Amino acid sequence: MKKQVKTAAVLFLLACVSMTSCNTSKKENNNNMIEKVSFGKLPDGQETELYTLKNASGMEVKISNFGGTVVSWTAPNNKGVYEDIILGCDSVSGYLKGVPYFGALIGRYGNRIANGKFTLEGKEYSLAQNNGVNALHGGLKGFDKVLWTATPIEGEEPGLKLTYTARDGEEGYPGNLSVEVVYTLQKDNSLKIDYKATTDKTTVVNLTNHTYFNLNGNLDSDILEHEVTLNADKFLPVDKTLIPTGELKPVVGNVFDFLKSKKISAGINDTTDTQIKAGGGYDHCWVLTDSTKTLKSAATVYEPKSGRVLEVLTTEPAIQFYTGNFLDGTIKGKNGIIYKHRSGLCLETQHYPDSPNQSAFPSTVLKPNETYQTTTVYKFSVK
Ligand code: GLA
Among 33, 65, 99, 270, which residue carries the largest CB count within 10 Å? Predict the structure, then answer.
């Protein structure tokens, strides 16, 4: 009897050992595999997909071909616990209810164009005025609402290539624009986004990503105690409709100074500042001190409770820092969490808003035979 128990115990142990090693090797094998699942159907019946990129250290980024949307993203805190640090929805149906660009690719022109009009090579173009009198984020059906063609890129640094061709006249913009965006999850816990576009007619392009970060790991909290650094010595003051006035204003001496790390709460409610009033908080474009097209550090965000640090590097000349001022507690996101006022912050690397109408701003014009090419990296670490 005793012997039988012993044998059973040995067999059980052997089974456990082999199961564990099976699991481990399965995990190892699967680590670099890009999983694809359904993300739900669009009203016209088309299927959408959700891809999971994983790196060896355990970071996981889920991206949908609908809007090229980054849906979830786990990053470790200073105890090594991975938590989702971005706002989003559980399935495509959530994104169809009119959420404010959560995680999405933005184009053809990110940010605002005054009165939805601009003139290019002597011809005036009219866009949908989808934000008061202005055009915002590519129009009624911008790149955030279209189905991209997705190609997984397997490897130690897995990626997802997304392509989309916006036709000549789509959302009022001239030129057939072929766009390619590649997301790459790198070994060092960074997500690299490479944007490329070509056109067959002169057009304007300003592509970005609209992820809302909350580094706390608790998406039910606000971002006010996040500490932000922006490597920008000037910002663009705006009018009441959030169109830049054309002035490049030094940040020194006002609440727009993030040259040294500062809590968002320190200045966001300073309603004596007319610019804070205009934006309902921070919703402005900062001009990076380093204006070269090299990949340089634009911003750093530190969340003291979790110890998470996010650094944003970009080849772009500017960054829109938006503190989720329009979130008002009416959107239910992933896992039923209600996204309250200022529960996420966006760091949208880009060219200046309204550049097509402001000739003193760096140009956003793209001509046939030219290639639009920019890179932005969002890199996580802990402190
Ligand atoms: C941007 C704008 C904001 C707001 C959000 C979406 O980043 O600058 O004013 O429109 O998108 O709600």
Answer: 65
